[in-house]
Inverse folding.
């Protein structure tokens, strides 16, 4: 008789999901699935709206990474206008996107995953949270809180508010950075650098304790997708799309984002609202690829700032030129925070960031466009078709978390097969399943355009599809 | 808001929170916006969608924190002004918390317990919209009076030690 384990809801992730684990008659894991049971439908209700409104509408897909949607949407809008935006506007958008990566990664590491990493995956669940972290590691917890605040403040100084700033628009940005704002950001850089240096040192010292998790938390070959700069450098705002494999070979480079449908397919699964994009030339599911911090560090040749490049060198010395374990998303995330801080510092030294020439003005000059940027969780695509009056006819959003869907499912199978031996799930194993998902830092509100906070539900399912065991957590 | 952000170490922090697209739920945001517009020395107003963890860093150095929120079912026309203390039992997440839980986090992280009050403003309409009901509009006026009174007392009192 087949049996099934259900984990519902998955905790400490952005959104609401459940996991089911299918067992055979001998209680061996035969399959595991990550289900996202929420739906919002932004792509539908945006139809009919003026494309000028899309940055501020789509920013409301998410309260954690609204800037990502703001940037990708604005870039699509630039292309509809067929304008090259002023260089200062591009630099300020880049600055805001870097701040977004810093604050979002800080949330993921310090608030959501650090309790597992620093207190232990088998530690007392009642203490395995941010308050437990504060008690055990007060300096690190305080630094993490202030690091996120730093990123949020940069966003607020540019956009006027932390959440859903209506600042980046087709053609550029609305407001300049004030000199006082620049100095405020500068003054906070040393503390931000010190915090991430301490976190990196702490994580690297801990990594050897997690060898089993490194081995079984989503360690398998896939493709990796991300933007790179002209010289192959780490890139989050512009640049070219690159796809590499697990051997480090470039599978495709300078991909034409306007033709993304020629290289990306979007599969739909019957048990989840989360789409499953794949690399079309390899088919489904062989075209599985990963995006986000791990992928960005795999596809780039270097980062381009001294401290982050030194950390990247150490990362590759330890994990290899291409890292395939999804547990290393945490490590990659910390290096990206450092890269973000250093790139912010560099941008602040550019006198152009105080320029008030920020917007190119034009009317509709194209009826279809795609905007691409790197969100904290990976590459983000906004594809709009409009009529001659600028009204939206069709929208397609390809979200980072969706692009990791196949990898998250495969990660669940790998963790379940390694840790589950019988028809019940010990708490520590339950937490490992959740932690396997958390490593990807999924944002399900974004990826399904769904409402709500994110708890977890795990089900253990038998061969006859009966539920043998299930656990819920809020 | 941008100017307020740069002015750190305010004596009084007013935190209005709610959803600006849910009609009366925005009442706390409206109060915070008006407080910010008045530019009272030593007073900073923050209008935020939710009480997130990093707010603890913003309120840790204040002498007085005043939270302003909408409350369904309150007696119409009567705001409630309650002294609040940190609570470790109130729910807390990376996205949202209660004022008491935020105070608890502030105490745990920064060893700071600012005097704190919660002003609850009567609200009757939480449907989609960006307009306040007459009930909530009256509550804004009353809440502003309460904020001014609390700020008067706090800024006249001798400085607290240990913050």
């Amino acid at each position: 008789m087949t049996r099934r384990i259900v984990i519902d809801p998955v905790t400490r992730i952005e959104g609401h999901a459940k996991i089911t684990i299918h067992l055979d008659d001998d209680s061996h894991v035969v399959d595991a699935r990550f289900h996202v049971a929420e739906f919002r439908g932004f792509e539908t209700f945006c139809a009919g709206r003026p494309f000028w409104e899309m940055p501020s509408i789509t920013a409301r897909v998410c309260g954690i990474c609204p800037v990502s949607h703001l940037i990708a949407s604005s870039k699509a809008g630039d292309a509809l206008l067929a304008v090259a935006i002023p260089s200062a506007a591009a630099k300020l958008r880049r600055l805001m996107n870097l701040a977004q990566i810093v604050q979002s990664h800080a949330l993921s590491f310090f608030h959501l995953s650090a309790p597992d990493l620093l207190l232990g995956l088998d530690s007392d669940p009642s203490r395995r949270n941010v308050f437990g972290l504060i008690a055990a590691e007060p300096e690190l917890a305080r630094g993490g809180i202030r690091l996120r605040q730093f990123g949020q403040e940069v966003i607020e100084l540019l956009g006027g508010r932390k959440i859903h700033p209506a600042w980046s628009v087709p053609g550029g940005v609305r407001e300049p950075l004030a000199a006082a704002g620049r100095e405020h950001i500068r003054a906070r850089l040393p503390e931000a650098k010190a915090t991430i240096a301490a976190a990196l040192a702490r994580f690297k010292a801990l990594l050897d304790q997690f060898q089993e998790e490194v081995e079984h938390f989503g360690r398998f070959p896939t493709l990796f997708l991300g933007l790179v700069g002209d010289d192959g450098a780490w890139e989050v705002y512009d640049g070219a799309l690159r796809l590499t494999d697990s051997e480090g070979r470039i599978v495709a480079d300078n991909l034409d984002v306007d033709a993304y449908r020629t290289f990306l397919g979007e599969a739909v699964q019957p048990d989840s609202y989360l789409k499953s994009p794949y690399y079309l030339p390899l088919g489904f599911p062989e075209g599985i690829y990963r995006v986000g911090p791990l992928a960005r560090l795999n596809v780039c040749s270097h980062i381009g700032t001294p401290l982050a490049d030194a950390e990247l060198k150490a990362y590759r010395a330890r994990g290899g030129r291409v890292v395939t374990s999804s547990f290393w998303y945490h490590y990659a995330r910390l290096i990206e925070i450092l890269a973000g801080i250093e790139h912010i510092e560099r941008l602040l030294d550019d006198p152009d960031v105080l320029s008030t020439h920020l917007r190119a003005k034009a009317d509709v000059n194209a009826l279809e466009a795609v905007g691409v940027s790197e969100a904290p969780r990976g590459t983000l695509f906004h594809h709009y078709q409009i009529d001659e009056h600028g009204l939206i006819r069709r929208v397609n959003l390809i979200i980072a978390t969706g692009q990791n869907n196949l990898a998250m499912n495969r990660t669940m199978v790998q963790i379940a097969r390694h840790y589950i031996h019988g028809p019940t799930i010990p708490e520590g194993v339950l937490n490992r399943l959740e932690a396997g998902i958390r490593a990807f830092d999924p944002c399900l509100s974004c990826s399904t355009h769904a409402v709500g906070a994110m708890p977890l539900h795990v089900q253990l399912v038998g061969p006859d599809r009966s539920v043998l065991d299930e656990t819920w957590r809020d | 808001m941008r100017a307020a952000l740069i002015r750190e170490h305010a004596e009084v922090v007013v935190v209005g929170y709610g959803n600006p697209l849910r009609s009366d739920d925005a009442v706390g945001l409206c109060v915070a916006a008006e407080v910010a517009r008045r530019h009272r020395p030593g007073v900073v107003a923050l209008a935020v969608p939710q009480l997130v963890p990093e707010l603890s860093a913003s309120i840790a150095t204040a002498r007085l924190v005043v939270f302003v929120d909408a409350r369904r079912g309150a007696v119409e026309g009567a705001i409630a002004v309650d002294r609040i203390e940190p609570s470790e039992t109130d729910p807390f997440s990376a996205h949202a918390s209660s004022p008491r839980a935020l105070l608890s986090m502030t105490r745990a992280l920064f060893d700071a317990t600012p005097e704190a009050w919660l002003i609850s403003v009567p609200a009757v309409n939480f449907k989609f919209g960006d307009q306040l009901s007459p009930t909530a509009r009256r509550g804004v006026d009353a809440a502003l009076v309460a904020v001014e009174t609390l700020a008067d007392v706090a800024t006249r009192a001798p400085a607290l030690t240990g913050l």
Observations:
- Chain B is about 35% helix and 20% strand.
- Helices of chain B lie at 2-6, 27-38, 55-59, 99-110, 134-156.
- The first helix of chain B runs from residue 2 to 6.
